[in-house]
Amino acid sequence: MKTPLYFTLQIDCEATQHSIRDPKLGARAIRGLGEICADAGIKATFQVIPSDLKAHHRIYQELEAQGHEIGLHVHPADQGYQEFLGVYGFEEQVKIVGEAMGLFAQHMGYRPRGFTPGYGSANDHTYPALESLGLNHGLVSIPTRNLPQCACVWGNSSPDLHYPHRYNRCLCGDVDFVDVPPTIDPSSRMWGGAHPQDLRVELVDAKNHWYTIQKSVLRQLSAGEKIPVKYLKAVTHNTFDYGDKRNFRRETLLGIIAAAKGICKAQGCRFVPATSEKIAGEYRKRVPLPRGGPILRLDTRGRAGR
Ligand SMILES: [Zn+2]
Q1: How large a percentage of the chain has pLDDT more than 90?
Q2: In the chain, where does DSSP find H-type helix?
Q3: Measured in angstroms, how far is the CA atom of residue 203 from the centroid of ligand 1?
Q4: Residue 171: is its pLDDT beyond 90?
Q5: pTM for the model
Q6: Is the dihedral of CA 209, 215, 218, 224 positive or negative?
Q7: Which of 85, 255, 298, 302 has the highest count of CB atoms within 10 angstroms of its CB?
């Protein structure tokens, strides 16, 4: 049987946040993305800040009825806190994210299961805080992103699906939360080297994204069963006019989807459109939550005379 390769698109929805304030653009973007997904047979995960949910909850309910996932995105400054989640301790993070979950439930009628912090900003308290709130999965880590000015430092954290470590956000461990990082090319650097080229639609054009997809697929396939659930995750924001057929980001997204399908076919994989929740669920089915974190052992192979 062909190896399944899951494909998902995540849209961080924040058109009403303080640095953008354009809810009409946000509405055009999410409606346009809904059309693109329907035409291409793709499933998306919309991670939405509470004020965008307030403005557009009817559209999100329609998108959910079409099989897309609606989850929670948090920019703490839009709730009256500092800009970055990763500067806060455990209890403050539980408060900030918990408040946003309450607002989400008011608009959507249920508590969110998926979560993404703004800027990938997190610290070692973040995953246990998300677990204590009952969140199930999300895009929290952005592997190799190094932006201390955004409290976002990830080192060489896992680029694959994983349960995070309880005390060290860069390690895998036993926190009951499945991290679903975006697809990245760690060796193609941007922003002065601080950020990896990732499948962020607006970052580069479709030609550049083709190489990131090809590299990620080959890496995952060569790992075999060491990567039990293989996937591609493109990301974007609802701050571009995806409703405009001539929009460059729309063309780029269509190019990413075509490239993913083409590379999947060329490698003999089965292309499986899915939400992040579905991909996290497949991981949970294949990989039981471990008890305790891994034991790290000192590598002494390079010591002279041994
Ligand atoms: Zn954001």
Answers
A1: 97
A2: 23-40, 50-65, 90-108, 126-132, 206-223, 248-266, 276-286
A3: 15
A4: yes
A5: 0.97
A6: negative
A7: 85
CA of 128 to the centre of ligand 1 (A): 21
Dist CA 284 CA 9 (whole Å) = 20
Average pLDDT, the chain: 97
Q: Rounded to whole angstroms, how far apart are CA atoms 62 and 39?
A: 16
Q: Which residues pair with 4 in a beta bridge?
A: 270
Give the pLDDT score at 190.
Answer: 95
Tell me if 61 sits within 8 A of 53, measured CB to CB. no
Domains of the chain listed by start with CATH number: 4-286 (3.20.20.370)
What would the pLDDT profile of 52-108 be if each residue is shown by its tens digit? 999 999 999 999 999 999 999 999 999 999 999 999 999 999 999 999 999 999 999
Cα 225 to middle of ligand 1, angstroms: 33
Query: Cα of 74 to ligand 1 centre, how many Å?
Result: 7
- Residue 23 Cα, ligand 1 centroid: separation in angstroms? 15
C-alpha to C-alpha distance for 46 and 112, rounded to whole angstroms: 11
Confidence of residue 292 (pLDDT cuts 50, 70, 90): confident
Give 222 Cα–ligand 1 centroid separation in angstroms: 33
